[in-house]
Design brief:
Blueprint: H1 3-10, E1 15-20, E2 26-28, E3 41-44, E4 50-51, E5 65-69, E6 74-78, E7 84-88, E8 92-93, E9 99-102, E10 109-113, E11 131-136, H2 142-150, E12 154-158, H3 163-176, E13 182-186, E14 201-206, E15 209-218, H4 219-238, H5 246-257, E16 262-264
Parallel strand pairs: 11-12, 11-13, 14-16
Antiparallel strand pairs: 1-2, 1-3, 1-10, 3-4, 5-6, 6-7, 8-9, 9-10, 13-15, 14-15
Helix pairs in contact: 3-4, 4-5
Length: 265
């Protein structure tokens, strides 16, 4: 494989860093001691740089630049000075269309592309605003469109209202449009905007119960939430011993992984 073909495989995707615990469980790496510190993800850019799409407390020095050793068919990770830090294998196919990049060494580190999303990010940057409101098409009303437009929001209609499919389509769209900033996700047609909070996900309650039908937040944090939810749901469905309901899984993810980074109205 040459570098051009490798770019087509790994660039314009978000890769989640994971490692295997002593119990052979996959573990996300959260970076930082602040409550709003997220887990490590990498994005390979075609110019040889590496971006970290999720909000982390600090940027690891070993994930600044990348290159390809064609002779050894290995991906090279470098610091900002271009000094080699780590090496990894070419991507390998896994279950459900996922791909895994395994690092060399005894730590059992890997990069996993996001489940439920094998589409590459589009190359072109779309025109338009930085605020997006996501709605199922079945709930769309012209009056709501006008009010959201006046509030400075573009509206994206999705052809599903089934929760996980809706979340997945929101994720696919957001990852393809990096110019977006503020996002509102409304699965049941609620077109309220409410107050948007920096560094917080905002959820609504229904009948004094936390609901996952409306939430808002900044792009990086919302991407992180959707990645964790889609990954956890995929593992839940594959594990016959996992008897959590979808709602129980969502609530556990929010409480355990996003403590101090969400509010409920």
């Amino acid at each position: 494989m040459d570098k051009t073909k490798l770019k087509a495989l790994i660039c314009n995707k978000i890769w989640i860093y994971q490692f295997l615990s002593d119990q052979n469980n996959t573990v996300l790496l959260y970076l930082g001691t602040e409550k709003n510190s997220g887990f490590l993800t990498l994005e390979f850019l075609k110019n040889g740089e590496i971006e970290i799409p999720t909000k982390v407390g600090f940027r690891p020095a070993e994930y600044r630049l990348w290159d390809f050793d064609e002779a050894r068919q290995e991906i090279i990770f470098m610091n900002q000075a271009g000094q080699e830090q780590k090496r990894a294998q070419l991507p390998e196919d896994a279950i459900n269309g996922m791909q895994i990049i395994n690092f060399h060494g005894g730590k059992k580190e890997m990069l996993v592309d996001v489940p439920h999303n094998n589409q590459l990010k589009v190359e072109s940057r779309v025109l338009g605003g930085r605020q997006m409101f996501f709605l199922p098409r079945e709930f769309f009303q012209q009056s709501a469109f006008r009010s959201l437009s006046h509030a400075g929001f573009n509206v994206k209609l999705l052809d599903t209202s089934e929760r996980m499919d809706f979340f997945n389509k929101v994720y696919e769209y957001v990852i393809q449009h990096p110019q977006l900033d503020w996002l509102v996700v409304s699965r049941t047609g609620d077109t309220a905007i409410n107050s948007l909070r920096n560094d917080f996900l905002l959820f609504k309650s229904a009948d004094e119960t936390l609901a996952f039908d409306w939430f808002s937040g900044k792009r990086a944090l919302l991407i992180e939430f959707l990645i964790v939810v889609l990954t956890e749901n995929n593992q839940r469905q594959l594990n016959p011993n996992d008897h959590r309901s979808e709602y129980e899984m969502l609530k556990q993810v929010l409480v355990e992984k996003f403590a101090g980074r969400y509010e409920v109205e």
